[in-house]
Amino acid sequence: MGFFEIVLIAIGLSMDAFAVSITLGLSVKKPTLLQNLIPGIYFGLFQALMPFIGFLSGTLFAARIQAFDHWVAFALLGFIGGKMIKDSFSKDREKAAENPFSFFKMLLLAIATSIDALAVGVTFAFFEINIFTAITIIGLTTFGISAAGVKIGNIFGEKYKSKAEFAGGAVLVLLGIKILVENLFFGGG
């Protein structure tokens, strides 16, 4: 497996994080530099960490995780997306006091969007691959794409805040459903 293949894998793995980053960009009026970087840091770190864990754990651990990883991703994305949809109908501004970039929320999102990377790490164990090069490429790619996602979501969200929050929540719920359906009916995606 060469550099080009690893870059393609990195881009593919980062698409869930990109979608979630867009929804985070919808949730703030004008993101600070730190708010633009936080999703990239969390998602990039977890997208790099999970393949490393998968690589080290081997196929035994992957078989156990693959049995329920889609349920975990579905539950986390469904919960967070459902809350965003609910909040989009809320007229009170108490949700403005919520921090969409809080440690706990970002941790849940990072785990939910990186579970599939665990299985990718297991496949890396079957190839002659430098795992440190691979996870560096995956982490940096996800970091950049996620940071861009916050900005893209914010630009879109300025004009259509509540509709965008609803759409963002719907995207997370649909992403969770997609992961679940792919794994239940098509053996993974």
The biggest beta sheet reads: none
Low-confidence stretches: none
| DSSP, total strands | 0
Q: Name the beta content range.
A: under 5%
Order of helices and strands: HHHHHH
Measured between the Cα atoms of the first and last residue, the distance is 20 Å
| Percentage of residues in helical conformation | over 70%
Mean pLDDT: 80
What overall geometry do the principal axes of the alpha carbons give?
Answer: globular
Helix count, DSSP H or I runs of 4 or more residues = 6
Main traits of this protein?
single chain; 189 residues; mainly alpha; 6 helices; globular
How would you sum up this structure in a few lines?
With 189 residues, the chain is mostly helical. It is built from six helices and no strands. α3 (69-89) runs antiparallel to α4 (103-124).
Note the topology:
Layout: H1 3-26, H2 33-66, H3 69-89, H4 103-124, H5 131-159, H6 161-185
